[in-house]
Amino acid sequence: MFRKVLYMVLLLPFAGITHAQSSAGVMPDSTKALIEGYVKNYATQHKSLFMVSVTDKGGSKYYSGFNGRTGSAIKDFNTPFEIGSCSKMFTATAILQLVEQGRLSLNDPLVKVLPNPALYKDLLVIDGKDYTDSVTILDLLHHSSGFADYFVGSDSMEIAISADKTLQFTPEQLIRRSKRLNKPYFKPGTGQFKYSNVNYILLGMIIEKLSGMKYQQYIQTNILKPAGLKQTWFGSVSRPSKELQGHFEGKPVEMPPTMAWSAGEMISTLDDMTRFIRSWFTGKFFRDKNRMETLLQQDYLSMAAGIIDYGLGNLTLGKKAWGHAGQTFGWQSFMGALPNGYSFVFGIDDASVDGWGPAVLLTEIARSAER
User: Fold this and answer.
1) Closest CA to 276 of 306, 231, 218
2) CA–CA separation, 74 vs 65, rounded Å?
3) What tens digit of pLDDT does each residue of 78-108 get?
């Protein structure tokens, strides 16, 4: 669910990345060798399965994968896995489509778009004052609402309590859970950032209210189908017949999909993640030709000291790559696109390891390929 502590990714060994020359957008062999070596070393070091797909400017894909538990190379890159909070980009895209349709504005108050006094009661009370009326749609997308998350504490503690995929949660139950377990982070409208899945649960509820469709149905009709994503599932609705197992600290683990819903329940493949991020980056989901310029150049909120910043449902790695990261109880994932026409996606089958380091390093490798 994208809750891990941010690692000191500036300490990564970038010195080994060379500035390879490419020909007509074709990925250089030296870039492929960098990817191959890094994937194998990472998977071996962390004793996890690590698989990557990097797509060059011309659309050709290069796959690399290694299973550090068995010491063997991965040959099948089509098996789906949980992509966690990468799902948030789909949710945010749906909200921005509804904005384009004139059904809401980013500056609309949450309580106007989704009136529910009983649900909001005590959700954002700070020093005796309720600030829920001040939360806007923009705050939800930016994680600047101040709403607390609904997890009990550390990853290991949450897994000990909730690692049962048969558990069922409604969106309302998740929000009430956040009120019961955690205190609000801060007052909205102060420009502060704090990641909370509650924001995207509320956005899912807004999609359903304004579209008259189930959240999953809206995403399927307006995002998955137009982009040709045929190997993507919603865990609370259906799961693929074959799916990769997730782990935490090396042990198999399961996550209830309804605990993620519109904040992170999706299951996909490397190829479908690639189709999505490349379609998103080129503006194919929006009517407004200026939408992507707004998304890419907006004022982002800082997540990690100038390394990672968050915007309207997407994050940027130093304005070098744009996309999103994901974490479930058992998986780390990332999908990112670069201005040079490259993109990369990956999955790591252990949620206890560092997923930020690979995202930053793969960004640098993809950038170096076109220099």
Assistant:
1) 231
2) 5
3) 999 999 999 999 999 999 999 999 999 999 9
Residue 357's Cβ-count burial label (10 Å; 0-12, 13-18, 19+) is middle
Contact 234, 265 (CB under 8 A): yes
Which residues is 324 bridged to in the sheet?
335
Which of the residue ranges 62-66, 87-91, 228-232, 298-302 would you say has the lowest mean pLDDT?
Answer: 298-302
Quote the CA–CA distance of 135 and 224 in Å, as a whole number.
29
Cα angle: 283, vertex 112, 221; to 5 degrees:
35
Residue-wise pLDDT for 8-34, tens only, equals: 444 444 444 554 444 556 889 999 999
For the chain, the helix, strand and coil percentages under 3-state DSSP, each to the nearest 5: 40, 20, 45
One-letter amino acid identity for 338? L
| Tokens 């101040």, located at residue | 146
Instruction: Say how many Å lie between the first and final Cα of the chain, rounded.
Output: 35
Amino acid at 268: S
In terms of pTM, does the model score above 0.85?
yes
Q: In the block, which residue shows the tokens 């102060």?
A: 190
Phi/psi at 168 (5° precision): -120, 130
The total of other beta-carbon atoms located within 10 Å of residue 297's CB is 10
DSSP assignment, residue 28? Answer: P
Contact call for residues 148 and 182 (beta carbons, < 8 A): yes
Reported as a pLDDT band with limits 50, 70 and 90, residue 293 is confident
For residues 58 and 323, give the distance between their C-alpha atoms in angstroms, rounded to a whole number: 19
- Give the three-state DSSP class for 99: helix
Which residues, in sequence order, are bridge partners of residue 9?
none
Q: Is 19 helix (H, G, I), strand (E, B) or coil?
A: coil
Q: What is the pLDDT of residues 237-278, one digit of tens each?
A: 999 999 999 999 999 999 999 999 999 999 999 999 999 999
Q: Is residue 117 packed enough to be buried (19+ CB in 10 Å), middle (13-18) or exposed (0-12)?
A: exposed
Asked whether the predicted pLDDT for residue 173 surpasses 50, the reply is: yes
> Mapping DSSP to helix (H, G, I), strand (E, B) and coil, where does residue 266 land?
strand
Model pLDDT, residue 207: 98
Whether residue 144 contacts residue 191, with contact meaning beta carbons closer than 8 Å, is answered with: yes
